[in-house]
User: Which sequence fits this backbone?
DNA sequence: TTCAAAATACCCCAAAAGGGGTATGGTGCA
DNA sequence: TGCACCATACCCCTTTTGGGGTATTTTGAA
């Protein structure tokens, strides 16, 4: 928590240098309550940078080279509980939202957000108010309420496991071998997945998965 | 071509608002030879915006909603030959580089580039010098030298078209209908694509395409 | 403890995908 | 004027996928 007067120090972790620098420039203006004190471009540089500069807040991308943002968020929460983490990502990783909230992540912004949203998010977070992008709240808040969305899309962990392998380019026989299952079982799971997602072939599954950011 | 004194006007087309705005801020500094005169966030807004503001240069993302950047580049080249196009993308779309050069695109930057590279690229382009990211040149310079890479990956435009439809979740019969082709023709193209990419099924194609960022 | 799922696994069958050919007309380059 | 490549389209064949069932065991929550 930071008083009104104090300027919040920020570490930006994003491998797209132009985006990273652009963010810094966006946050650097006359009277800005923020100061970007460090920028890193690799997942493995985040923790060392926090050690060095001890920022109030980390703006963290999910897709980072060398180390995954989710993983980093976990370590920050356990090793640096006073450092606020705000995820900034291209996608609505809906399936991560609950996990991120559990970890204690303070905010989630999309790269398609506006400068105003960015500022609002950071100001809320520095006041101790969590700020999650509306497109995330809309769909994921309903996940633990028993509505249509649940009935349509709620997949079992086995089904999710198989979806991931299918997306990785494994054919049914290969998945069966990998999971020590009969091909028939994998086929059954695949049928159930298609039924639940209301799709009819692999290509549509890939599309679905991309859209949901699984 | 623009004289040293004139300030180059720029249109930025990128759906990630924070990136788009960040770019504008990066290009806006004391004595900057550039001026961002318009920003759009959707592929379908690019051509109308060019009509309106007639920029010297368009900074164009490849992955735009509603309309593909490659497609837009083609139209800009034919309808507005005086407008320079610089691609700015997350990925090294190596397979597109020859195509982009043929179209007459003046530059290709990665989002992981630095501000210095961005400035250098734009200055070169405004002097009439093409600027393609080094990681593209490294691999694509060999593209017209008849080596293995060419034989493995160089896809025809028809093949690319079919890849895109396959990735969108269309089955062979649907693609055939959409392109007014025989199913057999689509099958032939698909076979040739798989041969060129050394893959053996749709799932692997999807993976390949994701990795290459098409 | 009972009941609903999830996970397992099989049946049958049609459709599509995948892999091997061949062939023909067109286009662009040397 | 070739030659290479592209786009088109067909043949044959096997494997995989997709869609409809049914059935057993395990597991977790009421």
Assistant:
């Amino acid at each position: 928590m930071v008083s009104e007067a104090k300027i919040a120090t920020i570490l930006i972790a994003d491998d797209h240098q132009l985006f990273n620098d652009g963010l810094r420039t966006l946050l650097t203006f006359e009277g800005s309550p923020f100061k970007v004190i460090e920028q890193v471009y690799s997942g493995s540089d985040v923790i060392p940078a926090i050690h060095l500069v001890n920022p109030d807040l980390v703006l963290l991308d999910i897709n980072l080279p060398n180390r995954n943002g989710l993983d980093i968020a976990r370590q920050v929460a356990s090793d640096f509980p006073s450092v606020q983490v705000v995820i900034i990502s291209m996608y609505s990783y809906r399936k991560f939202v609950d996990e991120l909230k559990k970890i204690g992540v303070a905010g989630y912004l999309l790269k398609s957000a506006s400068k105003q949203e960015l500022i609002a998010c950071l100001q809320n977070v520095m006041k101790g108010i969590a700020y999650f992008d509306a497109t995330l709240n809309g769909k994921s808040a309903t996940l633990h309420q028993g509505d249509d969305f649940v009935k349509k899309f709620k997949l079992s962990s086995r089904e999710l496991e198989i979806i991931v392998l299918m997306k990785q380019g494994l054919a049914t026989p290969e998945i069966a071998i990998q999971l020590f299952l009969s091909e028939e079982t994998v086929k059954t799971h695949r049928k159930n997945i298609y039924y639940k997602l209301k799709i009819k072939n692999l290509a549509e599954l890939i599309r679905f998965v991309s859209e949901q950011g699984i």
About this structure: Chain B touches chain A through 34 residues (CB under 8 Å).
